[in-house]
Design brief:
Elements (H helix, E strand, L loop, with lengths): L17 E6 L4 E8 L3 E9 L5 H5 L7 E5 L3 E2 L18 E3 L2 E2 L12 H7 L3 E4 L3 H11 L2 E7 L7 H9 L10 H4 L5 E3 L7 E6 L5 H9 L2 E6 L5 H6 L2 E6 L10 H12 L4 E4 L1 H10 L2 E18 L4 E14 L5 E3 L6 E8 L5 E6 L4 E4 L14 H17 L1
Parallel strand pairs: 3-4, 4-6, 5-7, 6-8, 11-12, 11-13, 13-14, 14-20
Antiparallel strand pairs: 1-2, 1-9, 2-8, 3-9, 10-12, 15-16, 15-18, 17-18, 18-19, 19-20
Length: 392
């Protein structure tokens, strides 16, 4: 039936194009096209943040993933030129329940829908995101595809076949897709400590800003640099950023980090950098059933006994004993788990006791919040300053 437009209701011709979300187990959800039209494939994951969607979709850690927002209403504050965490949108696809019909923020200069179209990001709206989230929590993250426009009319079995032929996240190295091609430098603010070599595995702008604010001149380096390239920066320390992919597929970055540790350079890693420190120390990593993604994850800092609410985006974790200290299998002395996730007892941080190195599995820069873990940048600064004093 066609609705009369004279009554203020839209006609069938004015309704958004149909779209379908197809999971690799054959589950299907029919909704409306959102963003660009076409097809997109990736690992379907859910993010629990109630706000900060612009920071989420521009976080390079989400490369290769179709992100579902559990918050039902997305897009009301639009998009602006200040809050992006990198040079583009990285999500492979986007799933929301109720996209905002209007933009209601004085800082916005575009709508979320328009930016998704501009960047070619295929999305879907108008589906039961709670049902999908519960399914992923039970069955685990899995490959999926969003089909809209002409692709929505493909035979359902053909759509499932396309999804099942997509690459799995386990075993994928995505660092080259998100890293800078040439080095960039951000000037230190305040009292200058020295040059900091940042390996860009998917670094966020808020991380760079926080490091510069602590007195580091931040040299963001491509992910394929060598130890000689790092030495050429004359760094006082090295930092490994967050990023997408399977740490087991990043052997070159692990070997590079071992060279950094062997050189005695202070080290701090976050998220993917935590997993790579674990592997450099000789520990294993594994894929979580559905990962941690959102800005409301409780973590215990064992050093202070304080519980922090933290921002996460990781699908892999480090294998290590949660209590006491243990010897690094690769000969770097004593190590302890410094932070533990209180939802599921996942390792959320490592601290080496005999070398100047530590890491956390979450995002202390936490744009758009919370900021409970921002002190970790101060802890890193203090570690570097102490190391400089010891070397004199």
């Amino acid at each position: 039936m066609t609705l009369s437009t004279s009554s203020g209701q839209a006609s069938a011709a004015q309704l958004p194009d149909p779209a379908v979300l197809v999971l690799e187990d054959g589950t299907r959800h029919t909704g409306r096209a959102y963003g660009a039209r076409g097809r997109t494939l990736g690992e379907v994951v859910f993010a629990t943040g109630m706000s900060g969607y612009q920071e989420t979709i521009t976080d390079p850690s989400y490369a290769g993933q179709i992100v579902l927002q559990t918050a039902p209403h997305i897009g009301n504050t639009g998009m602006n030129d200040e809050d992006a965490e990198s040079r583009r949108i990285w999500v492979a696809g986007y799933i929301v329940r109720d996209p905002s019909r209007v933009v209601s923020n004085w800082r916005a200069n575009a709508s979320l829908d328009d930016v998704l179209v501009e960047d070619g990001v295929v999305g879907i709206s108008g589906i039961d995101t709670r049902s999908i989230t519960r399914h992923i929590r039970s069955a685990g993250s899995m490959r999926g595809g969003i089909f809209s426009g002409a692709d929505a009319a493909l035979d359902p079995q053909e759509q499932v076949r396309i999804v099942r032929e997509a690459p799995e996240m386990a075993g994928r190295n995505l660092s080259a897709e998100v890293s800078v091609d040439v080095a960039t430098v951000t000037t230190a603010m305040g009292e200058r400590i020295g040059n900091l070599a940042v390996l860009d595995l998917g670094v966020k702008q808020a991380t760079i800003d926080n490091l510069a604010a602590r007195g580091f001149e931040v040299h963001v380096l491509p992910q394929n640099v060598t130890i000689d390239d790092i030495r050429a920066v004359d760094p006082v320390a090295v930092f490994y950023s967050n990023g997408p992919g399977d740490p087991a597929a990043s052997g070159d970055h692990v070997e590079l980090l071992r060279s950094v540790l062997d050189a005695g350079l202070p080290f701090f890693g976050i998220c993917f950098g935590n997993q790579l420190l674990g592997r450099a120390l000789g520990l294993g990593t594994y894929k979580l059933p559905f990962g941690h993604r959102g800005i409301n994850q409780p973590v215990l800092d064992k050093q202070t006994g304080r519980v922090e609410i933290t921002a996460h985006n990781h699908g892999f974790a480090v294998e290590a004993p949660l209590e006491g200290t243990f010897d690094s299998p690769n000969g770097y002395g004593k190590v302890e788990v410094s932070h533990v996730g209180l939802n599921d007892n996942v390792v959320e941080g490592l601290r080496a006791l005999d070398i100047p190195a530590f890491s956390v599995q979450y995002h202390p820069e936490a744009a758009a919040g919370p900021h409970d873990a921002n002190y970790l940048f101060d802890r890193f600064r203090d570690l570097v300053i102490a190391s400089q004093k010891d070397s004199k």
